[in-house]
What we know:
alpha/beta; Endonuclease, Chain A; 18 strands
Amino acid sequence: MLDFFQDPERVTLLVVAVHFVLVAIAAVLLSRNRRPSSAIAWLLAIIFIPVLGALAFLLVGNAKLPKARREKQREVNARVAEGTKGTLAVNHSDEWPEWLHSAVVLNRNLGALPMIGGNAVELLDDYNGTFDSMVKAIDAAEDYVNVEFYIFARDPSTSPFFDAMERAAGRGVKVRVLSDHLSGLMYPGRKETIEFLRKAGIDYYPMLPLMPLKGKWQRPDLRNHRKIVVVDGRIGFTGSQNLIDSSYNTEKNKKRGLTWQELMIRVEGPLVRELDAVFATDWYSESGVILPPNTAPIVVRDGPGLLDAQVLPSGPSFDNDNNLKLYTALIHKAERRVSITSPYFVPDESIMMAILTAAARGLDVELFVSEVGDQALVYHAQRSYYEALLRAGVRIHLYRSPKVLHSKHFTIDEEVAVIGSSNMDVRSFALNMEVSVLAHGRWLVDAMRHVEDGYRANSIELHLDEWMERPTQQKVFDNLARLTSSLQ
Length: 488
């Protein structure tokens, strides 16, 4: 045996053989229930950097939450589906475009929540004004306040929100807070923020905590990216904005003068009950406590300006890529126009094909993204898609620096809109827990067109000939960054 290991040729053959066997095993394991592009990317990583590639796969190769978390999601879905039977008829389906019916059924089957009418929706695109609206709602709370944010920090801009929660808790209102664990570690003030909640008597749990010594562990880049505020089951907020200063309190952003542009919605009506159901699911997942159901009868008002709307939760706690399926279906169903706003645009193959197909069908297709990026890898990856989009006839608008366009929404034709926390990128489709609102209403789409007009007026339109003249170094970085998007 010793003689064998002293022979360099035999040792080399053994290493090659072992490597070949490991690659063959990896090929079988990687191909199971995984997109071919993702499987190939992981396989190449293991072939060319075997040790690092294998370690990386063991760390971040599984894009689903632990089995117990997924079972809790199924349990809640079953409860919600049972508790909302009959509400499908309480809407204005006779006024929908014919193609919307199947999208609503898709959402119902994926996320368990129905499309329901009688919702008053207000667009909020002023950063600090959105905080003011939330504070006003919390100050009127009588029973409970449920708060869930991906990034959650007490700073001079958000202090009024925290003070409102403290006042609510002081007068006996039940205040519950969830925030993503890992994101909280990435921004200043986490310890002070949590201490404030404790002193104020506010219940708090971190979402998807990375605490291996306490048995709490999953793939570390699976995150909860949702933004939800619900007050007494009457008023709800959701959208793209985190609870933090518009500079995100980082020195790098402050030096560059970067501030974030967002879009949130304020909702009154039955849709608030659906946002509450998403919060209750996350609360159960983190605390083990099932919140008491809202037993008040669902009252659907009618009148001008009231919308049919439906909440779709998505993420690695589900068995399907919920938001990916909805977004792809809607783009394919569009008949005249598709307007997309996404700060991080690294599309799944099916989304990219849907957009290119829509443009080829003669639809007016436009994409709003930022001129600058705060995440270099994503910024360069998304740029690698611009050439194909421009060649297909998609109009691309670069929102001018130093504002970072962080809004996440899109509109289909003249009557259908989607607003939420989800980007059009592989992370939001497969790795992040997100929440989206599908709404039907011409006045809402008109209001969103007005928002998009503002984006367009403050944007630089990208043209193919100019884009193709960018430096070779940038093209190389863009294409290399694109390769990493398949490692999921």
